[in-house]
Amino acid sequence: MFQKSFVSIVFYPDKIQVLKLDSKRKRVVKFSQFEVPPGVIMKYRVRDQVALSKIISQVWRKMGLHDKFVGVVVPEFSTYTKTLSLPALATDEIDEAIQWQLQEFLPTAPNNVISDWKIVKRTAESIDVLVVAILRDILFGYVDAVGHAGLYPLVVETPSLSLERITGGDTGGKMILYVSSHETLLILAEGEKIVASSVVNTNKVEDTLNTATRMIEHYRHVKVEHVHIGGVALTQDLIQYLNFNLGIPVQLISYSIAGIANGQAQDYLSAISMQLTDPAEPESERTVNLLPPGWATHYKHKLRDIRYWTLTLLASVVVWAAFLSTVIVFMLIGMQSDQLQREHAASGEEDYGSVIVEVENINKLTSKTLAITSRIVPPQVVINKIAATKPPGVTISLYDLNMESGRVTIAGVAATRGDLIALKNALEQENDFDDIEVPISSLVNEANLDFQINLNYVPVTAVKKVAPKLNI
């Protein structure tokens, strides 16, 4: 699972919108939109990636944003959306079936697009899958521009996905109209299934009405019960005009959130909706994420590096805390010894019995302190030992260490089954590891094996934990 905190960026041919909610997603913290000069984005393609990256960097500075993770909404015109009905296949078979069907409705070869899907309905006999695809070169134009601005894209989606989410709740048919400054987006949906979408490159109400009528007529198997309309420059006359001519109840997309006026929120519906989703990896069957695989891998490595740094920092804090505790104990011992000597000199009485008891208590306290510090094993020691046994064909992406129990879990990818077995044998040769467990499921494939290995770190498990007691 990707991290949940990020900033929304919505791209239009002539502007970009940026919006961020607070951690509880109850208030808009920052929002703004900036013009994109002519020639940077033409016909929904990024023509000047360097210029777009500079604009994004300038936006971040002007808005005072320090976030590095973003969610991107790309223009609808450049995407292909379709809901497919498939037999009740196993999850691992769905992707292969979708790749076959993509060849039938895409105007180009499947290897020229980036696609993702999610299951929107499942029954005992069939499943409905929402598939979204975008031309590879168009997608990389936007994603790489974001990356060159020093940001990390977590999720990429289309306006139709964002608008369907923010108008969710209907299980029947619905039509969504979103009016922007130069175009109108029309979406025909049934529940979570997006049946069709269209972009009208004009603000003429007649053209929008004609397109909506043709879509409803063409997909007559979808019974449209409501029409949701949102965007800029909306009037009650427009709503009544569409209501009368379509013969279907038309209602304004009503979404209120603190930190932004309702009228302004209409202009930022896609950006707000993007903030309301929990970004998941493209492999997830629950969401659609058009993030290219290379960026997903890059993000995982970045997150892994952050975790390693955090783990090392925590280990350093523990070691320094133990060291400072020892220093403080010895200082207290010295202070107590000096106090005893002063009291002895002042009283002139030598109570050797009480002195011996105090010295014994001090020695016990010192022994316990040294025993505690000697049992602390920094996590990087265990990580380095495991890494030293790793064959070249094995990549370890997760270390889960419980330094209290000595239980260690590692996970990653092995190029071949032999590499995974070689890793297990190498760990068994180490005297510091025992009780090594490799699940049978990790050995099913011949190549590219996702594995998880559980083992004990003996120097920790061999130590009998004794609860410290306070001697009074």
From TrEMBL:
Coiled-coil stretches: none
Residues annotated as transmembrane: 308-333
Key word Transmembrane present: yes
Family annotation (InterPro entries): ATPase_NBD (IPR043129), PilM (IPR005883)
This protein's UniProt keywords: Membrane, Transmembrane, Transmembrane helix
Protein name: SHS2 domain-containing protein
Originating species: Candidatus Woesebacteria bacterium RIFCSPHIGHO2_01_FULL_41_10
Lineage: Bacteria, Candidatus Woeseibacteriota
